[in-house]
Amino acid sequence: MNDSAKSEVPLVSQPMLGVRLYSPGTLAAFTALFSLPIGFVLYGLNVRARGGRRLGLSMVSFGVLLQVLFLLLGARDSFPSGSLLVIGLFGALNVYKLESRPFALALTHGATKAPWWPPALAVLSLTALLLAVSLAASVLL
Fold first, then answer.
1. What angle do CA 135, 75, 58 make, to 5 degrees?
2. 31 near 39, Cβ under 8 Å?
3. Which pTM does this prediction carry?
4. Are the C-beta atoms of 44 and 58 separated by less than 8 Å?
5. What is the pLDDT of residues 1-39, one digit of tens each?
6. For residues 4 and 79, what is the distance between their CA atoms, to the nearest angstrom?
7. How many CA atoms lie within 13 A of 121 on its CB side?
8. 3-state secondary structure of 19
């Protein structure tokens, strides 16, 4: 079996100098604390930065669509919140394991660790916006 057939997710793509990647711990924390779709988005950004452009973009797109689905199901009270917690924790463990080796290898090839706060700020801003829209809708309806 040749190297390209072993893994569909590229480990590193040269050059890695200046490439910023989210650490496995950051990915796991966002997946567990926010949601599985947010973890998909950040993991997809890492895959894309390592050279898997199409796969990374598909993961980001899937994460966004899944988050919209979760929001719609949550708005209709048809998705149990306990399930989201279990899904998030399971996803966090998996993304940590999946990303640990590629992240370490990328660091040895010159990549750097991306800061955790920009995506946190984006998620919190989006949450505040959705809360404001929800409150406005409840007042108007």
1. 115
2. yes
3. 0.84
4. yes
5. 445 444 556 666 567 889 999 999 999 999 999 999 999
6. 40
7. 4
8. coil
Residue 65, token pair as written in the block:
């669509």
CA distances from 37 to 28, 30, 95, 98, 116 (A): 12, 9, 12, 16, 16
| 81 token code pair | 């919140």
3-class secondary structure, 112: strand
Please, what sign has the CA dihedral across residues 86, 42, 76, 130? positive
Q: Nearest 10 degrees: CA dihedral of 25, 26, 27, 33?
A: 100
**Token pair for residue 111?**
């990549």
What one-letter code names the amino acid at 56? Answer: G
